[in-house]
Structures are given as structure tokens and as C-alpha cells.
Amino acid sequence: MARRRVTARLVGTVTAVLVGSGIGAFALTPASAAPVTAAVTTTVVTKAAAASCATGKYQKQVEGYLKKLGGFGAVTVDGKQSAADCAAIVKFQKRYGIQPAKGLAGPTTVDVAKRLASTKTAACKAKKSGTTFCVNLTQQTSWVMKNGKVLYKPTIVRTGYEGYRTPAGTYKINKRTKKEWSDPYEVWLPYWQRFIGGIGFHQTTTYIHDKWRGSHGCVNLLQADAKAYYSVGKIGMTVKTFGRRPGT
């Protein structure tokens, strides 16, 4: 019995030393010490994550916007990159199709975060009944209201650029197809929902954050958003576009 007690103390000592040095000695950790192993794993992964994330030029601004938006994880608004900050930024970048999604708070990330954080859903002035698809042309954001409440939170869009400005107004969805062929531009438009002329919602066919290209008047959406909008949309539903895209 004495020998067993000494062995247990020895294993515990070795584990403690290795943990302190930052090395996970998982093979030497007894089954009863599983929580210690989990803690070691978390510590090692956290340190590795922090080391892989650089601090971007707009770190503090992005932290502030993400904290305001919520839903991307805990962030500390101090302008210093941490593992938690990095994880939140990466999650945000992946959600909004920002490439590369490596946690760097660069110009595209801060631009998207700022647009979303500054979007006021009440500005759509949607009716208290029915469903309204809202598009803020100035902020380049969009959301869906139902019976006066937000059904689908603001997301980013890309509308018509110079010479192809998306018009402001109130319209109705008048055609819907899961994949529409565009004769003028010879490209398929996934999750197509037309609301005026040849203009409608659809999944973007190019990198949505390439502002210089823009659209030819349509409201470009990321795949997940285009799919969600299509699942909600019906012929006759209201679409409100307001404001004006900068540069148009």
C-alpha cells in the first residue's frame, strides 16, 4: 500500500511539473485526473491561438463593434489581441465571408463591422403587419422585418455601382426561382427574387467585398443569407430600398 501511495504522488508531481512548463504529459496523467488534462489542453490551445493571431490596425475599433453586435464571443475592448478576441473576429469574418478569416482586424473587417453596428432597423419603417425585406443602400446592409419586429438580423449586401445604381423605393417580390439565368451577363443567379425590372435579390457570383465591381443593380447576398431570404420570401412580399450607395 505504501508503494502505491508513493507512485500516485510521483505521477502527480511529474504532471504538475510538466504543466508548469507548458507541456501536456497526457500519457502520465491518471484517469482520475482527467480535469487536469482538459485544463492543460485548453491552456496549450489558447496559447497557440493567441500566438497565431496578429493585432490589426483596427483592433480596438473592431473589438468595440463586435461587442456592440454581440453573438461572436467575449471580446475585450482594449486594442490588444487575445485568444478570445481572435476567436470572435475569426467567427465574424467567416460569417460575413471576409477573406482571409485569420483574426486580423484589417480594413474590410472594420468596414463590415461598422456598417452592421451602425444599421438602425427602425429606419426601414416597415409596416406592423406582414413581412418586409429592408435594404439600406447607404450602409449596404439588409434585414427582414415581420409584423414590426426583426425576423432576420442585418447582414451585408452589395448593390449597384456607378452607372447601375439600385433604385430607392417600395416594391413587391414578383418572381422567384432557385436559379435564374441572366442573359445579359451570362451567369446563373442562385436564390433569385425579383422585385423591379431585372433587379432582385440573389447570391453573389463574385467576392462580395470587392466594392469596385459592385452589381448591375441587384442586391447581392452571401450564400447563407440568399438561402435564408429565399426560404422566407413569397410573391407579393414588400421590399423597401432606401438611401443611396456612396459613389453612385
TrEMBL record:
Q: Name one GO biological process term.
A: cell wall organization
Q: Name one GO cellular component term.
A: extracellular region
Molecular-function annotations in GO: peptidoglycan L,D-transpeptidase activity; transferase activity
Query: What top-level branch of life does the organism fall under?
Result: Bacteria
Which SUPFAM superfamilies does the protein's record reference? L,D-transpeptidase catalytic domain-like, PGBD-like
InterPro entries reported for this sequence: LD-transpeptidase, LD_TPept_cat_dom, PGBD-like_sf, PGBDSf, Transpep_catalytic_dom
Residue ranges occupied by any L,D-TPase catalytic domain in the UniProt entry: 131-242
Gene3D superfamilies documented for this protein? L,D-transpeptidase catalytic domain-like (2.40.440.10), PGBD-like superfamily/PGBD (1.10.101.10)
Which key words are in the record? Cell shape, Cell wall biogenesis/degradation, Lipoprotein, Peptidoglycan synthesis, Signal, Transferase
Signal sequence region: 1-33
**The keyword Zinc appears for this protein:** no
To which pathway does this protein belong? Cell wall biogenesis; peptidoglycan biosynthesis
Q: Which residues form the active site?
A: H202, C218
Q: What is this protein called in UniProt? A: Lipoprotein-anchoring transpeptidase ErfK/SrfK
